[in-house]
Amino acid sequence: MNDCGVETRRLQLLLELSRLGSMRAVADHLGITTSTVSQQLAALSRETGARLIEADGRNVRLTAAGRRLAVHAVTILGSVSAARADLDPDAEPHGTVRVAGFATAFRRALMPVIRDLARNYPSVRLVVREHEPAEARALLAADEIDLALTYDYDLAPAAADDAIASVPLWTTPWALGVPASDGHRPARRAAGVFGAFRDRRWIGNSRNIADERVIRLVAAMAGFEPQFAHEADSLDLVEDLILAGLGIGLLPGDRQVKPGITLLPLREPSLNLRAFADTGHGRDAWPPLALVLQQIRALGQRAAPA
Q1: Domain 172-272, what architecture?
Q2: For the chain, which terminal residue's Cβ has fewer other Cβ atoms within 10 angstroms, N or C?
Q3: What is the DSSP string of the chain?
């Protein structure tokens, strides 16, 4: 990098380009012209002495150097914003926060936040992408998102990653969903509940192996190997498959299921889904992201079942 200074507003443009994907989108978001974006990024290339963008058909994309600088820009701009906030506590955060996560987390923790941001923090914009936990964490590692809403089960926790900071949001007990006609077979222990259905077909996930791992674990406690016949990520579809007599599967213990389905509690051991807000280490100080984290954490804790 050249010895001359780098203007932070140009770093902001580079960061927004990495997030929004086109100069036109950056210009529209910031209320400036596309020509201004292009000129400022060209100036940033001269300041750094590196080629930061390259042609991609009719659009542009970041080079490897551009992507690396965009990663540094998050920390640099976050530090600048934190310093300004310290000097001016009334200053509003602004920027685009990219979020990936599972549908329940969006409905429970993010949608109310989106409405609050629109009313009270119009300078903070959210971009939402629905993904299963492993997919969301991969996007976080690639710096394609700023926040991942993920989950695991306490009986089969996700592998720890030193590059990710996780904030617990809520915990929900899960149960085994079976046809109501089979709900008369109660058992005290989870292994006993599973053992009563050892000859049934089971429903797993299509894009996430968390349910399958837990089912196999509890089934092993009961001494059998479950037969997986179906894969579904939608809880509504899991219910439909159960009602059709095609299989049984895991469902939230606090879910209002359709008539014809019974939820059998799992105890000794119990099974709990744990929801998390994941960020890259050190990234959560960026004011727009810190604001979103603060709000979803508070909302998630209030929404957690007793």
Answers
A1: 3-Layer(aba) Sandwich (3.40)
A2: C
A3: --SS---HHHHHHHHHHHHH-SHHHHHHHHTS-HHHHHHHHHHHHHHHTS--EEEETTEEEE-HHHHHHHHHHHHHHHHHHHHHHHH-TTPPP-EEEEEEE-HHHIIIIIHHHHHHHHHH-TTEEEEEEE--HHHHHHHHHTTS-SEEEEEEETTBPPPP-TTEEEEEEEEEEEEEEEEGGGTT---SSHHHHHHTTTTSEEEE-SS--HHHHHHHHHHHHHT---EEEEE-S-HHHHHHHHHTTS-BEEEETT--PPTTEEEEE-TTTT-EEEEEEEEETTGGGSHHHHHHHHHHHHHHHHHS--
